[in-house]
Here is the input.
Amino acid sequence: MNFTVGEYLNLLEGENQAITSELYRMREEEVSSITYESAKADPGSLFICKGALFKKTYLEEAVFKGSICYISEKDYGLEQVAHILVKNVRAAMPLLAKKFYQVPEGILKYIGITGTKGKTTTTYYIKKIFDEYMKQTGGRDIACLTSVETYDGKERKSARITTPESLELYRHFRNACDSGITYLAMEVSSQALKYGRVSGISFDVGVFLNISEDHISPVEHKNFKDYFCSKLRLFSQVRTAVVNLDSEFSRMLLIKASSAGRILTFGTKPGADIYGHDICVENGTVSFFVTCDRFEGKFSLAMHGIFNVENALASIAVAYAYELPLATMQKVLKEVTLNGRMEEYNSRNQKLKVIVDYAHNGLSFEKIFASVRMEYPDYKIVSVFGCPGGKALNRRRDMGLIAGKFCSKVYLSTDDPGPEEIKDICMEIGRFVEDTGCSYECIFDREEAIKKAIMEAKGDTVVLVLGKGGENNQRIGQIFCAYKSDAEVVRECIREYDSKLLDERMGLSVE
Here is the structure.
């Protein structure tokens, strides 16, 4: 059913959000849609004016297309246009979304995952474990909202941001309910928590993976305290809190998690409810044992990287919370891989190994470089990466210093430069690489940078292509431009590398 403009006003007044309003003759008009994008406005729509970059022309376009009322923190002075002024438009959005989509209570079980590193991998681990269980029991695949993909039973599409705005979230929730889905797993970003995108959602299980300094910039978090406190907000809306005891801040996490009805811990320290131990890497396969009060069993991971044990333990803890079978967890983790996460490609002679991964901040760099150094102690490491423009400015220092510490050479290139010049970003990272004594080269064309890193590799070398994972676009200015995925470029380069070696062995000219 559609609600009237007056009913939405009553909602906002009841929640102490409305400041003033002027509805003219629109009070009894039914709202057919709600949007904050002028391109999606249509007859009968309720238009939300939000964002630091919002312009009056967006509202004028929405009204021209048929919007019957706008909601804003300021009066834009449009004659005879109905409007509701609110204290905080971001606080109003989830209220409006919840009323519009009328998501039935008690049908979906929400699982939220937050942390600086590993959200996507953990969410996919959880999804695949639950998908297998639902297959065994005759249920539907679970819904998931990740930085890679969105699936809600009706829609399956690539994602642009980690956690969508509340209007999109509640649409996905309604789609999942209508599709007969029982579980929904989603990444919860610090921005989503800080700006109220997930307000009103009661998570059955909330997972806190880890925390380190990230997303520090004028448009994200002003400092680490703001970032950390934003993340901690997840615990205020979870029934079961799943906490990583290996985290440097585990004591603080446990204090904040005490607001939940139940706490489950995981980690590689004795005393964790889900205790991972005897971790080893053999022939490229990571394996470990898990001990808890319900079972003890051995797990193997299809994905490379010893740091994925943390993500696996988190997913096992979630499955444990819902009392899923041990065998289901073991089967899935032994099989599941994720596009753009620790994808390894090898030359025929095995001297060259190229790993494509989404690692894009200081913590993920520390973990991936340490893991590669442990797994391939006799190989040189070369890396290709960049940093996004206009945000997460601390990454340029952190990633540059870490890469320089581990690498024999670093190739700096494009990674969503957005509003900044690629050259400026690369040169800033390069100064930190240089501080470590490591050589670096700036090649702004990412495909060319990957190719040069691979073709110039000498002897036993691991080339790490980092930051983009499975993405096939670059954000240049405000535009997302199509681009080959790193994996596709790497596969082409490996073929050329192998062909070059074959020609050299046969004594053919390679000029």
The chain has a mean pLDDT of 92. The two ends are 70 Å apart (CA to CA). The first strand starts at residue 18 and ends at 22. Residues 146 and 187 are 5 Å apart (CA to CA).
